[in-house]
Amino acid sequence: MELDEVLITMTGSNSNKKEQEAQTALLEPHFASNVFGLARVMCIDLRRPGTLRIFNGVVTSVMFFLATYTIGYNIRITFLSRHLSAELASQLLIILWAIQSLISMGFLVYWQLYGHLSEFRTKLALCQSLRGLSSPRGQKYERRTNRFFYFTVFLTCSVTVVLAAKYHLEEKHTKFQEQQSYIFYYPTLRPLYTLITTYLYIVFNMTLFVLIMYTNSTYLEMRYFNDQLSEFDGSCGTEHAKKELLQYLEVYSDLCSVIRHLDQIFRLYTFIMIVITVPSMIFTLMMMNHRIHSLIDLFLCMPTIGLCAFSFCAVTIAPARLHDEISRTKGHLCQNRSIWFPYRKEVYLIANTLTSHMEQFDLGVSVWGFAVLSRPLILGRPP
């Protein structure tokens, strides 16, 4: 009898494992699969326990230590020497971007080690079986985001390679560049600094796109829910309307739980990125004021301008779109006349309860708990 119980337990555990693997295979194409594919190449994929995770953890720790050292060295040579205002602004920009990338790397590692991303994926899948992501609109969003991700990674690598080549081809260098060439004691090791910088910038892009893709996935599920709610025909019968509205009430409650979980994952990271992006913009304007005297100078400064704009838009546009879609839910329900007319007491009570549940104006990705990222907030207009 004990042997039978053991066999049954083993069979049950194997079936549960197969179900988890099947669920993971279902979720994988929809949730930043390209980002984590690149993470595997860069040895920063720490999602699954095992030997590979230990190896990736060692590589990530080494890169984190080297990146911290390079930032400290750049800070030291920046503030121990006198520089021109334009040169100082560019140096501070480099330091801020490195700090921003290092913080992003820390958050990406933290989210993977503690399973926050996988938990969110499972919760979102349980709401509507990812019908919003599987819809034609969702697939279009996915393709567009993936193309943009690869483009930003390619652009990042291209810019760093071009700047490194420019440094090696120049005969004269600034005092800061000469001091920076000794970052690893031997000037011949300066390409290692370029490699670390490129690694950091790619990880920064990966972390931003995790935020974008996970927020967009929630937005697509919310939009699918709104579309279903607006297309719902409540005139098919009282019992049918009651049953469907109760299902909508349950799904909306699950979506609210998912959105609050999304907020808990990303709100601190979003706040830090916005805090760092603001001084980056100021230093960029300072550098442009001293350096841009022709169209060629403007072209050379475009990567700097683009990075600042991308950093700000990445942490604001996707959360603002999600907040706007959440705020439209009540309108979709109230405008569906088949729910309210003709008057049916039980249907009306359920619909009214659902309406009261939709009056949660704090749903969305907040900036450290005191402001939800919305389009009026970003554009500086009152809601």
UniProtKB/TrEMBL annotation:
It holds the Pfam family DUF267. Coiled coil: none annotated. The keyword Zinc-finger does not apply. The chain crosses the membrane at residues 54-72, 92-113, 148-169, 192-214, 268-288, 294-318. Keywords: Membrane, Transmembrane, Transmembrane helix. This is Gustatory receptor. It comes from Caenorhabditis japonica.
